[in-house]
Amino acid sequence: MTTDSSPLLQGELHVLGRIMPASNHTFLTELGEGGTRCVYKPVSGERPLWDFPDGTLAQREYAAWVVSDHLGWDVVPTTVLREGPVGLGMVQLWKDTVETPEGRPDPVDVVPEGPVPPGFLHVLDATGGRDEPVMLVHEDSRPLRRMAVFDVVTNNTDRKGGHVLAMADGHRHGVDHGVCFHVEDKLRTVLWGFAGQPLDAAERDGVERVLTGLDGELRERLEDLLAVAEVDAVARRCQRLLRQGHLPVPAGGWPSIPWPPF
Q1: CA 139 and chain centroid, separation
Q2: Per-residue pLDDT tens over the stretch 189-202
Q3: Which residues contact 44 (CB under 8 A, 6 or more apart)?
Q4: Source organism's superkingdom (predicted)?
Q5: CB-based contact 161:108 (threshold 8 Å)
Q6: Beta strands in 151-257 (DSSP E)
Q7: Helices in 96-196 by DSSP H: which ranges?
Q8: Cβ pair 211, 219 in contact under 8 A
């Protein structure tokens, strides 16, 4: 699948305001006066990280969309690399979210300890801010399962609850993919409720589609954005996922939940 991202490359970006909180400079913008709203993250506003090369987060955000687009699952909103008001950066289509109906948890949520809400999966038990027992849960839904598979393929080290956007039609988008594609396995996610579950046929097909693409055009696109070793690591993760046949379980040696989780 190839989404037409060219509209995001056309027109001048106008900054409407800064999105807070965010560890890197993140701006709400629009294309032209009153045009399409976008998120703009300039390379110049990236905070250095100890384990990722400086000035590469925007490319990783775009690479995540390239993989999402190749899968055809619409995990990541349409994203481009382009010049903006303060230089080159990632520009991503803004998505308006919907409020969760009263009485139902958010797609990823902290709820009081007790029975897991219907249609949700348990991730972990914890203690709340008032020392009350709570649980981290998330939806048992097709969009979140596909997001979990996508995160394994891209080695997402920061899938927080706030990085899951609820759409009015029930779809879920994932955002904030600047710390993906490290050569070392660094998966950190709040979507561990799927841990150990077998891949279904559509999920296997998607992973195989990425693996096949890494023998051709997909590899060429990713190698323009990432180190060759990082692209090779994507292929290894796809092969391992297909070989094991199930979503991974947390492993020792690296924190499995991002902090903070929201």
Answers
A1: 16
A2: 999 999 999 999 99
A3: 25, 86, 87, 89
A4: Bacteria
A5: yes
A6: 164-166, 172-174
A7: 142-154
A8: no
Asked if pLDDT for residue 255 goes beyond 90, the answer is no
In a domain, 229, yes or no: yes
Structure tokens at 231: 């692209």
Predicted structure pTM score? 0.95
Domain for residue 261, yes or no? no
Look at 53-62, 211-220, 226-235, 246-255 and tell me which has the smallest mean pLDDT. Answer: 246-255
Helix (H, G, I), strand (E, B) or coil at 88: strand
- Rounded to whole angstroms, the Cα distance separating 220 from 215 reads 9
Average pLDDT of 117-134?
92
Q: What is the DSSP string of 196-234?
A: TPBP-HHHHHHHHHHHHHTTTHHHHHHHTTS-HHHHHHH
Domain count, the chain: 1
Is residue 102 a part of any domain in this protein?
Answer: no
Q: Are the CB atoms for 84 and 42 separated by under 8 Å?
A: yes
Alpha carbon distance 73, 64 (integer Å):
12
Q: How many CB atoms lie within 10 A of CB 252?
A: 5
pLDDT tens digits, 152-161: 999 999 999 9
Confidence of residue 20 (pLDDT cuts 50, 70, 90): confident
Residues 6+ apart with CB under 8 A from 148: 189, 191, 194, 247
Instruction: Read off the tokens for 101.
Output: 């109906």
Residue 38 inside a domain? The answer is yes
Q: Which domain holds residue 216?
A: 6-97+141-244
Q: pLDDT value at position 1? A: 59
